[in-house]
Design a protein that fits this description.
This protein has helices spanning 68-91, 107-114, 126-135, 171-185; strands spanning 4-5, 17-19, 27-32, 36-41, 47-51, 97-101, 118-123, 138-141, 159-163, 191-195. By secondary structure, it is of the alpha/beta class. The strands form three sheets. Strands 8-7-6-9-10 form a five-stranded parallel sheet, covered by helices on one side. It has a three-stranded antiparallel sheet with strand order 3-4-5, with no helix packed on it. Strand 9 (159-163), helix 4 and strand 10 form a beta-alpha-beta unit. Helix 1 crosses helix 2 (107-114).
Length: 196
């Protein structure tokens, strides 16, 4: 899923993936643990990983424990929100409406709402969507909608954020998805923020 697959590979989790997406040179095994297998490009040193994890059909939020990891992630997201929102205000001073695509638990949206933004979130996780609903944040459940149904939102977004989202898609899908989103959200869209 994360690397260009060359037919004929056999063996371990990444053995069939041989071409680097960045420069098309040969990928070689780098690090392997029971949780992750990493390949590295011989030429440009680009790395790609495949993580073992929950069953693909499981809601990704169900993999997190309610303990220290989530609290650390929440603190990180809140800290990042302050900085990102400051940059947004400087670059798009008249924007007031924000859609966070792949919003997760909505911590970034909490910060944006506190800073005066009108906010909405979109996510594939039912857990995430329920959390947004409990906070009174407009949302789109991407698993049940055939496309981004902005008609379900109380506004058309001027800012689109994808924070730690792009790396969860196969690399060949990132640019097409971003292009579709930008085209669909025009002419109101003023800025797109992608954080990887």
């Amino acid at each position: 899923e994360y690397l260009h697959k060359i037919p004929g590979g056999s063996g371990g989790a990444l053995s069939g993936y041989k071409a680097c997406l960045a420069c098309e040179a040969q990928m070689v095994p780098d690090i392997s643990t029971p949780c992750v297998a990493v390949m590295q490009c011989r030429r440009c040193k680009h790395r790609v990983a495949r993580h073992s994890g929950p069953v693909p059909s499981a809601d990704y939020h169900e993999q997190y424990d309610a303990g220290g990891f989530l609290e650390a992630l929440r603190a990180t997201r809140i800290r990042q929100a302050r900085r990102i929102l400051g940059e947004l205000r400087a670059c798009a001073p008249n924007a007031t409406r924000l859609l966070d695509f792949g919003c997760g638990r909505g911590w970034f949206l909490d910060g944006a709402r506190e800073a005066g933004w009108q906010v909405a979130g979109a996510d594939t996780s039912e857990v995430a969507v329920r959390l947004l609903e409990a906070k009174g944040i407009a949302n789109i459940h991407l698993e049940t909608e055939p496309y981004l149904r902005t008609d379900r939102l109380p506004f058309r977004p001027q800012v689109l954020t994808l924070l730690d989202v792009a790396e969860h898609s196969p690399p060949t899908r990132v640019v097409p998805v971003l292009s579709e989103l930008v085209t669909f959200l025009r002419p109101e869209l003023q800025m797109v923020v992608v954080k990887v």
